[in-house]
Amino acid sequence: MPTVPTLPGITSKLIDTPRLQIHVLSSGADDGVPVLFIHGNASSASYWEEIMLKLPMGYRGIAPDLRGYGDTEDKLIDATRGTGDFVDDLLALAKVLGLSKYHVVGHSMGGAIIFSLVPAAGDAILSATLVDPGSPYGFGGTKDLDGTPNYPDFAGSGGGVVNPEFPKLMAAGDRSSDNPQASPRVVMNSFYWKPPFKPAREEDLLTSLMTEKVGPDKYPGDFVPSGNWPNVAPGNFGPINALSPKYVGDSVKNFIAATAKPPILWVRGSDDQIVSDTSLFDFGTLGKFGFVPGWPGDEVYPPQPMVGQTRKVLDQYAAQGGQYWEKVIADTGHSPYIEKPDEFVELLTKHLSEA
Known about the structure:
The protein is of the alpha/beta class and 355 residues long. It has a domain at 11-148 and 247-354: Alpha/Beta hydrolase fold, catalytic domain (Rossmann fold). The protein has 13 helices and 14 strands. The chain has helices at residues 49-53, 84-97, 109-121, 165-171, 184-192, 202-209, 239-242, 245-248, 251-257, 283-288, 306-319, 336-339, 341-354, and strands at residues 11-16, 21-27, 33-38, 59-64, 102-107, 125-131, 142-143, 148-149, 214-215, 219-220, 223-225, 232-234, 264-269, 324-329. The strands form 4 sheets. The chain has an 8-stranded mixed sheet, with helices on both faces. The longest helix is centred in the first third of the chain and has 14 residues, at 84-97. The relative contact order is 0.16.
């Protein structure tokens, strides 16, 4: 039985791959056109169930729990490879499942993974949908639209930027609202969607959030002290370090130069506070707003222009022969596919059919 109860019509299986055993949720007929759904941080495949069930006839939804999340085998994430472990796990799963051609849909961290998955998958990807994706340059520690690092050691990104109370309460299974800054329920209901919205499956989605593996080498990951504000630099393990621009390496260049360029739908929530040009999870924003003392100013450490960075990279992708469409879903936060699923599915279905 999966940790999170599934909706009727969703199948749960453990799939053995050469890399690790992956927990996979699926919907639709086995001979349907595959749509691979990739979840974000502090969640699991469960977040995609409603959308999977809304796919039109002829499509097969496939949603794995990523390494470090849900009911997938617990193995460390080597952050020095950037999102490489996630990408290789997904390619291994696709091979075992016999997916020669498939669509991909990624939310938040899952969207950031797609920037590396596209060049790695060759011509296997029919289309890609990015839902409030993390910046292709990584999360934290960069400025300007070209992703220039604020410091050579990428201070302000990686495992040290996470409020340590949040994973502590996750590990304890805390379902209360007692800590207004760090209770998982409060964080989820304040930032995953736009208040006062609350999903019908609030309890299941909270359980899903807390399936992430917590520990110094897991979430939030390790970090090293830095002489540069905010005095923490990335470590070597865990998903937040994997998203550090220190380890993104050539992923942007490889994405833009990919030989096979699937059409891309970029969907954003109008009021996203997690992935934003003024993200409340970015030290540049927190410093500028006075929430973290010692901010060195806009010239040294401005808010990371996450949305602007994504748009510029997608513009470059288009200039090299790709196509993309940017759509904003009004009155939603970081998870418009949960907040307004029918509007999201209409956009997604059009994109899948045209691809």
